[in-house]
TrEMBL record:
It comes from Marssonina brunnea f. sp. multigermtubi (strain MB_m1) (Marssonina leaf spot fungus). It is found in: Membrane. PANTHER family: CELLULOSE SYNTHASE CATALYTIC SUBUNIT A [UDP-FORMING]. This is Glycosyltransferase family 2. One of its GO terms (molecular function) is glycosyltransferase activity. GO terms for cellular component: membrane. Its main location: membrane.
């Protein structure tokens, strides 16, 4: 074990061995025993710069050394060839604004020491970095003196999202709240009609329609997420007014920028650190501190080399001890805050995820929002990505959330910290005791607590950072399940934001929205359970809807048509900021991710340990041996291996079984209806509608959604190397995403999904045309036959329908009394007149059935049904 100097104490490094892949257990060391990593090498990884740059630099001790990459004698060289573009078939998605222009020639390519600086990065602690109230421009200390004036801020536009959200998209979005009101009203009106029809049918037949109730329950559970979002989108009536601002001048408030990492590739972390150091901001007014929970020796060496170019960059790795909680990312950030507190903190702190590359004007864009309002605790930009695969099959882009949901929450004063790129006011953090521990979603917990203390938060809707999405299926599952568990953890600790000291200063809207998102996470458990009911109800063969008269059926079809039509309009309006296909992918993702989220939440909060409880996030079963590399066309595993891994190790077998049994149930029930004897074409159509294809054909949307993991395993998207998505400065090594990589490309797969969705939602219109003349599920096509048969019953002229009674009158009378009954012979339940005792499919009693119908409508009096039954003429 290597010893090191920690504020005058000799201690031994002890590495954690708990096996977690992120922020494994460790100890929150007391402040007095903490220090930064001591040894700071003096080597330059970028010695391929122009000849004007010397390779030998003067240090405070007078020593000189040659800069080398990673502590070796081999220099790091960037390829000189042009980087290839991403792909050609692109559809631009709002939210990927242009990068800040980079003036390469204006940046230093050699170590830049400000006049008066008597120190370099070879220090044993951060102490020389901080000198409170130091007024010089030395980078050895951050001055706390900054005078804010209105002239210091430039107002570029009255809307911060002017680059993202403009033109017809903004015009369409104006109708979104009104459409949501209409959609919600129509849905609940239709829901009430469905319930009333079932109750009336039960009262008339004195029976319980279990199939109709079960199907209704599934529809309600499936619709809950969309209705919750409707409630949130209705709040869009409150206009959001957040201007686009920039901080002017060569002075500014002091900022500590933390880059948190834990086991990521060194190249990814270094790209983030270089971009953070290269901010268009006074160099002596901010410092970049790498908080490495992975204790990477290679990363430490690279950061120490980079310190020769940017003397405001530092590396810290906290000690962690086995078996002692260290509180994940929140503990890492708190450790960094405590370290800079020892020497004097900056007025603000900012944080970047290891893979999030900030734009050059990141600090200048966010700080004005904190300076103009002293009660503003947080300014946070959206998380955007530059490696989203073609068609985004797993809905990894978050575009719907960052471009639709977050701006509305910001208008209501509930802007969340989205985890990266944010800037916090240290005063607000100190008031809540820094980042709260005990939650995987420390960002949500922190922003919620500062709101509860009466501070304000802001969402800056500008493209100011670009990161990477998980590159494989496993990484995506771990990320999303960790978010879900963390959100519920935060909600339970804060009493769902409804009461308690932590949320005392919240408004009613802030409390409701806080509870809403927590309930959405818990709701995934109910949604997953309801999915099991779908194939059971379809295979049951019972009518999915119940009604006692054709008038009720007509109103049901009208109600369904109006509800779906309005819902489609709402989808177009609410997806206008993020893109239509992105919004549809996000909707499908809610359903296929539900089993994974539900399992993780149940393990974390419900199941005991002996049943697999207390697992932080989703963990695959079995041993994978090696990564699938499914997005690497050259190194990916074979399709059988991918299928086996995703089906069994990642438990997508649930999705496969659901799809298989649902489609089998549809086929069996359709066969029973289609091949039933004595059924006309119209009867078949109506029978299929109420037994299988009742609009909006929920099963079809669920099947297409839950097929996503299997389709991904069969045909995963191909992505180029990360370097091909970046535009790198060969002199400094600083990289920013290319314009093409910021956009999402779409393929023909979207056409197929849209076809399925259109077919399922447009079926209402087709059913509507057949609905007004429906007499029942199987009897609709028999009207003409019944009229003719009952008009010529032999042997009893009183049993014949008078010639003055037209076919139209007969139909109207029949429609008004039609109910649902059970055949005495085969016990089949279906629509029939009250006087009928046998169903039309039972050949031995069909004559009695026909005559009973004539008697029921009141036009005839049949006294001897046995003569009618044996008559060969009927």
């Amino acid at each position: 074990m290597a010893s090191r100097n920690i504020v005058g104490l000799e201690m031994a490094d002890i590495k954690s061995n708990d096996g977690n892949d992120h922020y494994t257990s460790g100890l929150d060391i007391p402040v007095a025993t903490r220090s930064r990593r001591s040894t700071l090498a003096n080597s330059n990884p970028n010695n391929n710069s122009s000849s004007s740059n010397s390779n030998t630099w003067s240090h405070h001790s007078g020593d000189s050394s040659t800069w080398v990459g990673g502590g070796s004698a081999v220099s790091e060289e960037w390829p000189n060839s042009a980087l290839p573009e991403r792909h050609s078939f692109l559809e631009s998605v709002p939210g990927s604004g242009p990068a800040t222009p980079i003036d390469i020639d204006s940046r230093p390519t050699s170590p830049c020491f400000y006049q008066g600086n008597g120190s370099s990065q070879s220090h044993h602690s951060l102490a020389p970095l901080m000198k409170p109230h130091h007024t010089s421009k030395s980078t050895s200390g951050l001055s706390s003196e900054y005078t804010f004036t209105e002239d210091s801020i430039a107002h570029l536009h009255k809307r911060d999202d002017v680059e993202i959200f403009k033109g017809w998209r903004r015009k369409v979005s104006r109708f979104m709240p009104f459409l949501m009101f209409g959609n919600t009203f129509l849905y609940f009106a239709y829901l009430g009609l469905r319930i009333a029809c079932v109750i009336m049918a039960q009262n008339s037949q004195n029976t319980i329609y279990a199939g109709a109730w079960a199907f209704l329950a599934v529809e309600i559970l499936v619709a809950i997420p969309s209705q919750m979002h409707n409630f949130l989108l209705m709040c869009g009536l409150k206009k959001r007014q957040r201007p686009k601002l920039r901080l002017r001048g060569e002075d500014g408030p002091t900022v500590d920028v933390f880059v948190t990492c834990c086991g990521e590739d060194d190249e990814i972390v270094l790209d983030t650190v270089r971009a953070a150091c290269d901010q268009d901001y006074p160099r002596d007014r901010f410092r970049v501190i790498v908080l490495d929970d992975g204790k990477s020796a290679g990363l430490e060496a690279y950061i120490n080399q980079l310190a020769g170019v940017y003397e405001n960059v530092f590396y810290i790795a906290r000690p962690k001890f086995p078996g002692v909680p260290h509180h994940f990312k929140a503990g890492n950030l708190n450790y960094g805050l405590e370290q800079v507190d020892l020497m004097g903190p900056g007025e603000f702190m900012a944080a970047l995820d290891a893979d999030m590359i900030p734009e050059r004007d990141w600090l200048r864009a966010l700080l004005p929002h904190l300076l103009i309002d002293p009660k503003m605790a947080l300014a946070c930009p959206p998380q955007l990505f530059y490696n989203t695969p073609v068609s985004d099959p797993l809905a990894q882009s978050l575009n719907f959330f960052v471009h639709v949901i977050e701006p509305i929450k910001d208008a209501l004063g509930v802007a969340w910290c989205t985890g990266s790129g944010y800037i916090f006011r240290r005063e607000a953090l100190t008031e809540i005791g820094n980042f709260p521990t005990g939650s995987l979603a420390e960002d949500v917990a922190t922003s919620t607590m500062v709101i509860g203390k009466g501070w304000k938060t802001s969402y800056i809707h500008e493209p100011l950072q670009f990161g990477t999405v998980p590159e494989d299926f496993a990484g995506h599952l771990k990320q999303r399940t960790r978010w879900a568990v963390g959100t519920v953890q935060t909600a339970t600790k804060l009493n769902f934001c409804l009461y308690g000291d932590s949320v005392r200063s919240m408004t009613v809207a802030q409390r409701l929205l806080g509870a809403l998102y927590a309930m959405l996470g818990i709701f995934t458990v109910l949604l997953t359970l309801s999915m099991f009911v779908v194939p059971i109800v379809l295979a049951w063969g019972k009518p999915l809807v119940a009604f006692s008269t054709v008038t009720q059926l007509r109103w049901l079809i009208w109600g369904a048509s109006a509800s779906v039509a309005c819902n489609r309009l709402c989808e177009v309006a609410m997806s206008s900021p993020s893109g239509y296909h992105t919004s549809q992918r996000d909707s499908r993702s809610q359903f296929w991710m539900s089993p994974y989220l539900a399992l993780s939440i149940m393990r974390a909060f419900i199941l005991p340990r002996w049943l697999g409880g207390n697992v932080v996030a989703f963990k695959p079963t079995g041993s994978l041996g090696s990564a699938l590399n499914e997005r690497d066309a050259q190194n990916r595993k074979s399709m059988p291996r991918r299928l086996f891994t995703i089906l069994f190790n990642y438990m997508a077998i649930f999705h496969f079984v659901f799809v298989y049994f649902t489609l089998a149930a549809v086929a069996v029930t359709s066969y029973k209806v289609f091949f039933a004897p004595d059924t006309s074409l119209r009867g078949i159509f109506i029978g299929l509608t109420i037994h299988v294809f009742w609009p909006p054909m929920t099963f079809l949307f669920l099947v297409s959604s839950l097929w996503t993991p299997i389709a991904y395993a069969i045909d995963p998207p191909v992505m180029p190397e990360r370097e091909a998505l970046l535009q790198r400065d060969q002199k400094t090594g600083i990289a920013h995403p290319t314009e093409a990589s910021k956009r999402i490309a779409f393929s023909g797969q979207e056409v197929w999904f849209e076809f399925l969705y259109t077919v399922s939602t447009n079926r209402k219109a087709r059913s509507h045309h057949a609905g007004p003349t429906n007499l029942g599920a199987h009897q609709a096509g028999r009207f003409g036959h019944l009229y003719q048969a009952c008009s010529r019953i032999p042997g009893d002229r009183t049993a014949r329908i008078p010639s003055s009674v037209t076919r139209r009158n007969f139909q109207a009378r029949l429609s008004s009394i039609w109910t649902i009954g059970s055949c005495l012979s085969c016990a089949k339940s279906e629509p029939m007149p009250p006087a009928a005792n046998y169903c039309e499919h039972y050949s031995h009693c069909s004559y009695i059935h026909d005559t009973a119908i004539a008697s029921a409508v009141g036009y005839v009096q049949v006294t001897d049904l046995s003569r009618v039954k044996t008559s060969p003429d009927v």
